[in-house]
Amino acid sequence: xxxxxxxxxxxxxxxxxxxxxxxxxxxxxxxxxxxxxxxxxxxxxxxxxxxxxxxxxxxxxxxxxxxxxxxxxxxxxxxxxxxxxxxxxxxxxxxxxxxxxxxxxxxxxxxxxxxxxxxxxxxxxxxxxxxxxxxxxxxxxxxxxxxxxxxxxxxxxxxxxxxxxxxxxxxxxxxxxxxxxxxxxxxxxxxxxxxxxxxxxxxxxxxxxxxxx
Length: 213
What we know:
This protein is α/β, with parallel strands linked by helices and 213 residues long. It is built from seven helices and ten strands. Helix 5 (112-118) links the parallel strand 5 and strand 6.
């Protein structure tokens, strides 16, 4: 069976990125949204990226950013995927010539299928509990039963995940990937390596149980 992929978002320190990779995290997220407590500058992000081992996917998160800001970040950093958390149009998201993930604010919508139709080129939909002006990392979860079963894109599940509930989340939703931030932090932007490892053990343990069944 395929293991559910894991993205650790809101990395602000090189040592946290290195520890995440050592724990088996598949992707890290860098937040380029200045109001966020997890915001990083391009210089900070460059330091994090330089410290990462190979084969770790790097994701840049933007919220309603001016296109020039996105292009400036892309010119400075070798990001693999873009993640858009605002009300960005498909034309905007596709204009940067990079694979992208579209976040869906589950607090603001009941029509996830509409997001899929509006963003046909999105590689995945990231379903998060954010909304009402918040961009995520709140530690709150949404009702997973609201996810329509007929989605035609991979689902990345976010919102309130932690080492204690990620197993139940994967069993119920069966997402392509899970995304965690505040659920493994000491404080905003500072990751707790023990909780990161516990989170990964919950994910990989579920996979191993299914494989051995």
